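Hi Y.,

Following your request, here is the sequence exactly as I used it, all 322 residues.
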Amino acid sequence: MNAAHAARSVAVALVALGCAVTSAGNARAGVQDVLVTDTNGSGVLQFDKATGAQTGGFGSGIVDNARGITLGPDGNIYVADIGHQAVQEFAPNGSFIKTFVSPGSGGLSFPHGLTFTSAGELLVSSFNNGEVLRYNGTTGAFINIFASSPGQLANPTGITNAPNGDVLVAWSAQGIVQEFTPSGTFLQNYATGLNGPAGISFGPNAHLFIANAGANNVVEYDGTTKSVVRTYSDAALQFPSDAIVGSDGLLYVTSIENQSIVRFNITTGAFVDVFTSGGNLADPSYLLLAPTVPEPTSLALTAIGGAGLIGAAFRRRTRGNA
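Below is the corresponding structure, written out as tokens. Let me know if you'd prefer a different format.
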């Protein structure tokens, strides 16, 4: 388990963990899939990465208004559940295991992004009270407040781990992404001048990708110089909530207003296509990618950073759960 924890701390979006699944499960061996949470009651939806066709889903009826999704050190999938103010745990095949973080634990309110640290602890952004909360990564018990900026910063959304193990947090209200040590000590403002940053994740060359929801674009930052490398935008991208780079070198972005997931070329910045839209995809939120594996009875899931949403903008869609 220590090896898995160490791998998770890198969190550059390409951390593969093997997990056993049954052939009857939602996860399909040998096929690359895209998992996305849907805030409109559909739980987690699953799409074929080659075709964009929906292949399954899980959590509907269990998760009420799903937001963040991440892979745990144990290979299980964890989903932020706004309706129950909790975090739900699922097996790799989508089977429900248990409520991992109990409702309101530690003051959890309107949970958005979530990620596991290098120490194996779970961090969850508590949007309504402006805090990032820390939980035991094995039991789900509340430990303490990881980061809090009352009166200064508010509405934390996306959370992810930097290649060096530090933790980045997006504060949507102020348009800032900050960097903390794994223990919660503030280090620096990583990115400023954003417009409602939501999901954040690291891609190739330790570049940070920020879904800049209020500006309808994704901003790419150089992880060394902290300078802007490129901005991704297109008419098909309206209110992005998460952005992750796949093993195919394409940037996958959820477009809430267009009820779709779109893709960009990270080499040229050009818009590629609408990966999927319609069907059960009503309010696409956070993303997780599942790379192809050769074994017919296993699935390796890759956590591509935590992600978040701009809660105030989504309240019109959440049936009064805020």
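Residues 2-197+279-309 form a domain with the Neuraminidase fold (CATH 2.120.10.30).

Thanks again,
Q.
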